[in-house]
Amino acid sequence: MTLPLAIVDAFTSEAFGGNQAAVCVMLGPRDASWMQKVASEMNLAETAFLHPHGHGEFELRWFSPVVEIDLCGHATLASAHVLWETGRLARDTEARFQTRSGLLTANPRGDWIELDFPATPAEPVAAPPGLLEALGTTAAYVGKSKFDYLVEVDSEAAVRNLEPDFARLGALPARGVIVTARADSPGVDFVSRFFGPAVGIDEDPATGSAHCCLAPFWSQRLAKTAFSAQQLSKRGAVLEVELKGDRVLLRGHAVTVLRGELLV
User: What distance in Å separates the CA atoms of residue 39 and residue 201, rounded to the nearest whole number?
Assistant: First the structure.
């Protein structure tokens, strides 16, 4: 038996940018331990597994190389892209996913893909021991969302130049750490980087779910609800982000770079 498998670069309009996701389309559910082994074999930030789930919907699960993930933007965007590109869904049809974070949807918006995700706002907290030392920086703000620590620093350059101690970051009680600053680059509102060594990803190239925290944070500071954002990883990523009440719309592009078969 074989299963179709694709590797998609998400939140980029050019191959070899953004964030890589493997997408495995299955006929029905599979055991979590098997999916974790496949994700470890892929060794990408996330591998998405989806199968039909009722009329017009798909069940979607995401795995890093070491754990199952509760919310993932780039692999959801990649999954919708694969469904449309392979004709499993008509290009003008909404992709609907049942996930560990509830119903998530994806819609084509011209050559962009728009995701509808839950907002995950951060609350101010004291920096836990070791956080700022591991980042090697000072903070204008430290907060905590349901998933991650959020650290605001004083400049785009400070975000770009971080060289974290990943072993120390991985010991913190959180999925990961978002570091952000107001952008200096023209046409960009804010920049960020995301570090997730606790879930097997030292630095994530493009993190849609982090922007579910960044959108309400920057909405308060910039007094607006729609943003252009950049993630300053080596691969780079560009996102359009919009806060709508307790939801966040994430828009990005996707490029398929590999198609194959998984032998099982």
Answer: 12
